[in-house]
Each structure stands twice: as structure tokens, then as C-alpha cells.
């Protein structure tokens, strides 16, 4: 697109969400778009920008087996390796574009294979659950099944890396936990050199859990796909559930299957909210 036209029209975007976990998506496969941290933060701002949990940029992939590369920026402008709900949303766009029922997306966390189910739900293979303390990563050697952290009433989380670090605390009632206050403190615990997503989970019944997530760089989210995967893996490791689990988040349910090969499938809906243009003034002001 010529620069003068770009100055006139800004940049096209699509607003999408998975169970309320929402994204501003820009397709940069034909015209490169490399926003600064300040630009990303302003676009994600719900008062001064468009508003989203994550800002997603679709780029060309250098890998022949991938349909595209997905770059993920948190609301605070930081870049992360994985976002399960965004993976499903971007895959939905790519599958509609290619008129296919499956695609492969490259991320900083690796190649993710995604397919469309007969009922319209989208399933993403989020790759292997990493369980070693070095892979979370933790600042020192710990048993990731019983990490030992405590900030009353939360204690002894299970830690899992699902493309990003998660600490899952099992509690009697996830609704009763003041996650708004505890999440920021635990996110920056010294044991987490790259910070961590903080979750509280409680059992609903067999193979069914309730989950709330404080996402690093974002805050409490309506849904967190990688968090749901981490919680399902954590509950199976603790012997609380089997390896196929329904995870109820604030925005609705996701269906998780921790497979025998160690990879984790996540199934759920995606929605497109609207399309629009980011004004050139917004991009200019945030430089």
C-alpha cells in the first residue's frame, strides 16, 4: 500500500475474541507492521485506543509448512510466545481464507496445528506441556508439582509451561479468591524470572473444573486458553481429574485433552466482533 494512502487511511484491523478473551488483529503479511511497545500499549488501551487483552500481528512465516506467523503482544506491550484463544481466532481467519479445515501457525513457542470441528468449534494443538523447573522457567530447582509458594490463602501451586509460564493454585472455591489483589504480587514472585500467569482452580465435579486467571501483562481475563491447558494438566498431575477436562472460565467453557504424547488439545468457540481502521493519529501519537 503506498505511503500516502497509508497516511490517509491508517491501518485495517479485525476485532475478535474467544470466550471474551479479546484481540485486535492486524494482517501484516503484505505490508509489514512493526509497532513500538508504546503503540501496542495504546492500541490495547480500552479508553484511549481500541481495547484488547492481546494485540495480534499476522506475518509471513519462513517455514514452508506454516500458513502464517502469529506475533502476540500483551496489553502492556510485552511480547509473549503463546496465546491459545488467539491461536484459535487466527486459525479461523486463515481457514476461511484458504477454504480449509486445518492450518499450521508458527509462533515463538513453535508450530501449532489447528483444525475446525464438525460443530464449528476450533481445536488447537498447543504442543507439549513442559513440566521441568528449567522449562517453566523457575529461578531455582523446585518440584513443579508442589512448588511451595504461598501467599495466603493461596499455597503450593503446580507449575506448567504451555508456551508461557503458569502457576495453578487449587482452592475450595475459585470465586472466593481475591485474585485482583493476589495476582499482581504472585505474577512477580522472585521464583518467576519471566513472570507467570496466576490461576485459581476448584473442582466442579469429575473432570470438570472452574478456573480464574490473572494473566501476566494483562490482568484478570475473561478466558485464557493456555491457562486452561495448564490447569487441566495440573489437575491431572495432582490426580484430581483425568486427562480430558472441561474448564469453565469467566467467558465460558473450553475442552482440554492432555494426550498420551504429552501434547495438549484445546477446543472452543471463536467470534469476530467487527472490523475497522486504526487512525493515523493514534499511530502517530503513540510513536
Features:
17-stranded mixed sheet, 19 strands, single chain, two-stranded antiparallel ribbon, 20% helix, 287 residues, globular, alpha+beta, 6 helices
Structure description:
- By secondary structure, this protein is of the alpha+beta class.
- Helix content is 20%, strand content 39%.
- It is built from six helices and 19 strands.
- It has helices at 3-9, 37-44, 84-98, 179-187, 225-237, 280-285, and strands spanning 11-18, 21-27, 54-59, 68-74, 79-80, 102-107, 110-116, 122-128, 150-151, 154-155, 158-161, 165-170, 197-205, 208-215, 219-221, 244-249, 252-258, 263-268, 271-278.
- Helix 2 (37-44) links the parallel strand 2 and strand 3.
- The chain is globular and about 50 Å long.
- 46% of the residues are buried.
Chain-wise SSE layout:
Elements: H1 3-9, E1 11-18, E2 21-27, H2 37-44, E3 54-59, E4 68-74, E5 79-80, H3 84-98, E6 102-107, E7 110-116, E8 122-128, E9 150-151, E10 154-155, E11 158-161, E12 165-170, H4 179-187, E13 197-205, E14 208-215, E15 219-221, H5 225-237, E16 244-249, E17 252-258, E18 263-268, E19 271-278, H6 280-285
Parallel strand pairs: 2-3, 4-6, 12-13, 14-16
Antiparallel strand pairs: 1-2, 1-19, 3-4, 4-5, 6-7, 7-8, 8-18, 9-10, 11-12, 13-14, 14-15, 16-17, 17-18
